[in-house]
Design a protein that fits this description.
about 260 residues; alpha/beta; Rossmann fold; seven-stranded parallel beta sheet; two-stranded antiparallel ribbon; 8 helices; about 40% helix
Length: about 260
């Protein structure tokens, strides 16, 4: 199905955590289009599972923050598929909150979902991948929030910075059989974009501030995951692939009325 032999995922099993909506669903669709058998997990089954043509993702209910549920998820994977080639560690996110007044419990919950849970999922995936011929690849979905100030989502930004550090350590520990990498999106347009950026005009205004002229779409992230998890990226490990459309224009350019470049 895919145009490049290196991006052919026929016979491969891919797990996308939080793969029922948003970026995760986009990533799931990319792998389905490349011929993979895709499993998505989430707390509740969605009305519509990610689908491309006749190929549809399978769903396993699991809250990645719950160690028992995680054990059940991987027991089911072993039993039904017998292997796991790629883990996309995508489940995460955070509501906006003022760090000065958010409760300690809120901060702890955000870090648990965005750092502790992905570490626990990766640990389970590694156990399975180390035991199979050909190993596997673990892709953490990071964020530009882990690399710059993240006002309004401070704990989330700190957790994502932790993810980027974690990727380097796990890559060193689990090599050569398992590759561990990060893909860090900038601003992505999903079905929830209006909550962060307002109406179409707001989304367009935010997009205009990005050199690429638009927000990313989930497919942009999916395409990057297809590459980074493939044999084409066989020497990539412990690295972070930044997908931010050229980043954000420095604020001083607008503030100081500097001559445009």
């Amino acid at each position: 199905m895919s145009g490049h032999a290196g991006l052919d995922y026929n016979g491969k099993v891919v797990l996308v955590t939080g793969g029922t909506k948003g970026i995760g669903a986009g990533i799931a669709r990319s792998f389905l289009a490349a011929g993979a058998r895709v499993v998505v997990c989430g707390r509740t089954a969605p009305e519509q599972l990610p689908q491309v043509g006749d190929a549809q993702a399978a769903f396993i209910a699991a809250d990645v923050r719950d160690q028992g549920a995680l054990q059940g998820l991987f027991d089911t994977l072993r039993q039904d598929y017998g292997r796991l080639d790629v883990l996309i560690n995508n489940a995460g996110g955070s509501p906006t909150a003022d760090a000065a007044s958010a409760s300690p419990r809120f901060h702890e919950g955000v870090i648990r979902l965005n750092l502790i849970a992905p570490l626990n999922v990766a640990q389970q995936a590694n156990l399975l991948m180390q035991a199979q011929a050909g190993g596997g690849c673990i892709v953490f979905i990071g964020s530009v929030s882990g690399l710059r100030a993240s006002p309004g989502t401070a704990a989330y930004g700190a957790a994502k910075a932790g993810v980027i550090a974690l990727v380097q350590s796990l890559a060193a520990e689990w090599a050569p059989k398992v590759r561990v990498v990060a893909v860090s999106p900038g601003l992505v347009r999903t079905e929830l974009a209006h909550l962060h950026y307002g109406d179409e005009a707001g989304i367009a205004a935010v997009g205009a501030g990005i050199p690429a002229g638009r927000l990313a779409v989930p497919e942009d992230i999916g395409n990057a995951c297809l590459y980074i998890a493939s044999p084409l990226a066989g020497y990539a490990s412990g690295c972070n692939l930044l997908l931010h459309g050229g980043g954000e224009r420095p604020a001083y350019l607008g503030a100081a009325q500097v001559a445009p470049h």
